[in-house]
Amino acid sequence: MSGRATILLLSGTALVGLALACTAASAQQTRGLRTGTPTYIAQPPAPPEPPLTPASSTPQAIRDPAALVQGQGTAVSTGQPPRASDPVQGSAVRGVTQRQFRAPQPTVARLPPPAPPPPPPRKRTTPEQDPWAAPGLRLGSVILRPGITNSIGYDTNPQRIAGADAKGSAFSRHEADLDVQSDWGVHELKGRLRGSYLNYFRNHDASRPDGEGNLDLRLDASRDTRILLESRARLDTQRPGSPDLTANVVGRPLTWQYGGSAGVTHDINRLQLTLRGSVDRYDYEDARLSSGAILSQKDRNLTQYGLRLRAGYEVSPGFRPFIQGEIDQREFDEPVDSSGYARSSKGATARLGASFEISRQLTGEVSGGYQDRNYDDPRLKNLRGFVGDAAVIWAPTPLTTVTLRGTADLGDTTVPGSSGTTMRRARLEIAHALRRNLTVTGFAGFGRTDYEGQNIREDFTDIGARLEYKLTRTFAIRASFTHERLNSTQPGSDYTANVSLVGIRVQF
Asked: Which of 292-296, 410-414, 442-446, 479-483 has the lowest mean pLDDT?
């Protein structure tokens, strides 16, 4: 062996010995610490080789390919090291993780349950329909409610005359009426017609008809403009003691009043303007005297033309005051009457009023004003005075209804030397339903007629009660009693009458 090789061998031996000494010293200093290589890193010893099998002509890789990798050792441990999930920390320092520096997550509270939906708005309650009202007959889009009433009664003074000449008589009354109401989306047609005949069994001269009716049509030209068409008629009779009858007559002369009007109403915000023109006709039947002669009343026939302008302002939904102006002209068929007076005249009227609905219990319209009437005959002085209308309906309870009506007007007459008449009328009715099909109504009325220029004044009063008992929607029983009294400054014109009546009504 050469010297160089010997030196290298001695150097390697010395290095190995130094390494072993250092290792022993380190083992003594680190006494108590774990030594050796962990089992999960160290490679386990190889399993013993299987026994040799006889040689085969087929290679092992072809006979069992998985056998090449099965049973081989691996350096990766299949177990979990202890404290693998704990944070890494030094031997003398407590471990600190990032989780300890994070702000605590806010507690997520559950949202409050949603508020319940508000209750639906309260619908406006419609008035309950009367279960005893007439069902009506439908003719297309128009509802008709006809009715017939047949009654019998007793009248203590059929002719309404004064003194002992008044003789009572039983009588029958036959009445028919018809209510009309349209059922249209726009426009409206409504009206009421009534007619009756009284037949006195002992005094046929006192038998008489009477009736009245109106029919109104509203055409909605636009949202703010409406066309108004109206028609009206009235049939009545004159009592024998009337001051306008200059002689004693037999029977009850007929009077007719009929006419119509046309107008337009326009709304400008809360302001409502109405312009209306009217034509009315008054006809009087000739009277028959006790001597058989005929008393002509053609000089009383006249036609009246009128034009009215009305402006109302809606202060609130239930209160509308208005101002109204009207001019009219009355043209008599005869230039002069039987006394030689020219009765044609012109009039001008101004009114203030209001329509109101303070509540559902109190509704109505009230107006009042002043009228000045100028006659063609200079001998007749102007007729001036207060004019007005009132209609108030008050329902203090659902079972009680109070109705107040009043009128003040200036009329015509043929009494010689009198310009005309000043008429005042007032009527009060109180209806109370004892049951839904049993209604009792008490009424009282007062009227005064003054003949201007003559010392003639008539005060008329009536008071009484009515009862209606509805058996079904079709049949009803009606009864009434009325006391009438007339006090007049004209001799021989006062009278008193009591009228009793009971009957049955059929309505459809």
From this structure: 292-296
Q: What are phi and psi of 476, to 5 degrees?
A: -150, 150
User: Are 392 and 369 in contact, with CB atoms under 8 Å apart?
Assistant: no
Between 180 and 46, the more confident residue is 180
Q: Quick check: 225 and 206 in contact, CB under 8 A?
A: no
Residue with tokens 């809606």: 314
Dist. CA 350–CA 368, nearest whole Å? 8
Evaluate the CA torsion angle 189, 192, 195, 196 in order and state its sign.
positive
Strands 249-250 and 169-182: unpaired
Is 92 a residue whose pLDDT tops 90?
no
**Count of alpha carbons within 13 angstroms of residue 44, beta-carbon side:** 11
Cα separation of 348 and 410, whole Å?
12
Structure confidence at residue 240 (pLDDT): 85
Residues 6 or more apart in contact with residue 337 via CB below 8 angstroms:
299, 300, 343, 414
Following CA atoms 343, 344, 348, 354 in sequence, which dihedral angle do they give, to the nearest 10 degrees? 80
Residue 320: both structure tokens together:
């509308």
**Cβ-contact 463, 481 below 8 angstroms:** no
Lowest mean pLDDT among 107-116, 124-133, 446-455: 124-133
> Per DSSP, what are the bridge partners of residue 393?
363, 403
**Rounded Cα–Cα distance for residues 201 and 109 (Å):** 96
pTM of the model: 0.72
Distance of CA 410 to the CA centre of its chain: 38
Tokens of 276: 């209306």
- The strand ranges marked E within 221-300 are 225-237, 249-250, 254-268, 271-284, 287-289, 294-295
Among left, alpha and beta (phi > 0; psi -120 to 50; other), residue 385 is left
Give the confidence band of 49 by pLDDT, cuts at 50, 70, 90: low
The span from the CA of 374 to the CA of 384, in Å, is: 9
Cβ-proximal residues to 321 (8 Å cutoff; 6+ apart), any chain: 312, 313, 315, 352, 353, 354
Given its phi and psi angles, is residue 10 left (phi above 0), alpha (psi -120 to 50 degrees) or beta?
Answer: alpha
Q: What is the mean pLDDT of residues 200-229?
A: 95
